[in-house]
Write a structure and sequence with these properties.
Number of helices: 1
CATH architecture: Sandwich
Shape: globular
Structural class: mainly beta
Helix content: under 10%
Order of helices and strands: HEEEEEEEEEEE
Length: 181
């Protein structure tokens, strides 16, 4: 089995195996839980509620493409620390015939890619308009990221000429190689 097939199967399994959250809106996504829009941290640093829209702003120059930014942080005994030099990618969401999002398709050879910097910040530029999921891609596996402690996949819309800011993505654990922690 090729790496691309393995990654797509991994993402499909992650989506299909997520338990129902018990929320009233979860029943409409049965039999398998569809990814939901992730809550994000707004620019003031406070957590937004699940289902909230990521912050967007107009890009200064018209580019007919969108952009995405955020900061990836990992909780340690010393507080939240930036996750440095980690590959993040975007996968397109795919819906069933009823329009329910079921999977995030990720092709490592064609997907938009960004790496976190020394402060954990990442930036994707020149993105086509569309709906995407955020993928953590390590050497051995790729994982769709979820909002910490929830069944909500980090999904977002990219719109031409807008910057989407996911804010701080804070995790107590991530499937990272030891050198990235």
């Amino acid at each position: 089995m090729g790496r691309q097939t393995y990654i797509l199967v991994t993402v499909l399994l992650l989506l299909a195996c997520r338990p129902s959250s018990g929320r009233p809106d979860a029943a409409q996504n049965s039999p398998s839980t569809a990814p939901e829009r992730a809550g994000v941290t707004d620019s003031s640093g406070s957590d937004s509620e699940a289902g909230a829209q990521p912050e967007t702003s107009s890009l200064e120059t018209t580019t007919d493409s969108g952009a995405l930014t955020g900061v990836l942080l990992l909780r340690t005994v010393d507080g939240f620390q930036p996750v440095v030099d980690v590959k993040l990618a975007l996968g397109e969401t795919l819906s069933d015939d009823e329009g329910t999002e079921r999977i995030v398709a990720y092709d490592p050879s064609a997907a938009p890619v960004a790496y976190t910097d020394s402060s954990g910040r990442f930036l994707f530029e020149n993105l086509q308009s569309g709906r995407y999921g955020l993928i953590l891609d390590t050497v051995l596996s790729a994982s769709l990221l979820y909002q910490e402690g929830t069944d909500n996949a980090i999904l977002f819309d990219i719109t031409d000429d807008e910057m989407t800011d996911l804010g701080n993505l804070e995790y107590s654990e991530l499937p990272l190689p030891l050198s990235s922690r």
